[in-house]
Write a structure and sequence with these properties.
The protein is of the alpha/beta class. The chain has a single domain, classed as NAD(P)-binding Rossmann-like Domain (Rossmann fold). It is built from 7 helices and 7 strands; from the N terminus they run βαβαβαβαβαβααβ. The chain has a 7-stranded parallel beta sheet with strand order 3-2-1-4-5-6-7, with helices on both faces. α3 packs parallel to α4 and α4 runs parallel beside α5. The longest helix has 29 residues. Bound molecules: NADPH dihydro-nicotinamide-adenine-dinucleotide phosphate. The site of NADPH dihydro-nicotinamide-adenine-dinucleotide phosphate has 30 residues, from α1 and α4.
Length: 247
């Protein structure tokens, strides 16, 4: 086991699958103690057990990031369990693609509640601890936070919001030693697309990605690790990472 993050305490949201799970594994492999948070406790527990078997400190915590009180409790229990908080990876998210015209607006509500408000609640609850530890907060945004595309308006809106919120936060806290990192992946092979409710959009994206070599969740996790293991005086503010095959 490498020791770049030995003694560091990390909280990863959306750690039950995909990028969050891979990031929790990568941080643990670098020596961090991790709290894995998401709604599917059974999946978190399976990862927790694997990490413990490999000698890491890992704790699974059931959390719906749209519930502000639950977020505050999860952050408090993370700090109590791990003795502090040095790294937060705000990763929980949904991508419910579809055109604006005729959209099921409950898709919009779910995305804004999770991708935007959930991330803001976690940031808000974690910030006093990160200021104390001079820690790092990693916001998993998306290419969709930089480039808008038809059929993705509401998802674009949430990820543009993440980028705007994070840049303003950066200006507020960087001189006090807190590093704000925004990671913007292109297409990653995960469960994300399975949840799309608009059938034509789901079919179109499945068709598009079938033709390319997608990023793997571990590729994004490696980018996160690169940022969080940089020397304290270096902030990797933004990582824009796409599959080579994605035009
Ligand atoms: P997954 O669907 O595999 O992971 C999403 C994670 O978010 C799951 O662990 C899920 O866990 C969790 N989650 C969803 N809603 C909530 C909630 N209300 N409270 C807590 N956890 C929640 O997809 P990815 O790994 O791909 O997605 C992770 C992030 O990466 C998202 O923010 C996504 O927008 C972003 N991203 C993904 C890209 C891709 O192509 N895959 C590209 C660019 C960005 P559970 O259901 O157990 O709660």
């Amino acid at each position: 086991m490498s020791a770049a993050l030995q003694g560091k305490a990390a909280l990863v949201t959306g750690a039950s699958s995909g990028i969050g799970e891979a990031t929790a594994r990568a941080l643990a492999a670098e020596g961090a103690a991790v709290v894995l948070a998401a709604r599917r406790l059974d999946r978190l527990r399976a990862v927790q057990e694997e990490l413990r078997a490999a000698g890491s400190t890992a704790h699974a915590v059931e959390l719906d990031v749209t519930d502000e009180r639950a977020v505050r409790d999860a952050v408090r229990s993370t700090v109590e369990t791990l003795g502090g908080l040095d790294i937060v990876v705000n990763n929980a998210g949904l991508m419910l693609l579809g055109p604006v015209e005729g959209a099921d607006t409950t898709d919009w509500t779910r995305m804004i509640d999770t991708n935007v408000l959930g991330l803001m609640y976690v940031t808000h609850a974690a910030l006093p601890h990160l200021l104390r530890s001079q820690g790092t907060i990693v916001q998993i945004s998306s290419v969709a936070g930089r480039v808008a595309a038809r059929g993705a308006a509401a998802y674009n809106a949430t990820k543009f919001a993440v980028n705007g919120f994070s840049e303003a936060l950066r200006q507020e806290v960087t001189e006090r030693g807190v590093r704000v990192v925004v990671v913007e992946p292109g297409t990653v092979e995960t469960e994300l697309r399975r949840h799309i409710t608009h059938a034509p959009s789901k079919a179109a994206i499945e068709q598009r990605v079938a033709k390319i070599r997608q990023l793997q969740a571990s590729d994004v996790a490696a980018a996160v690790c690169h940022a969080v293991t940089a020397p304290a005086h270096v902030t990797v503010n933004e990582i824009f990472i796409r599959p080579t095959d994605q035009a």
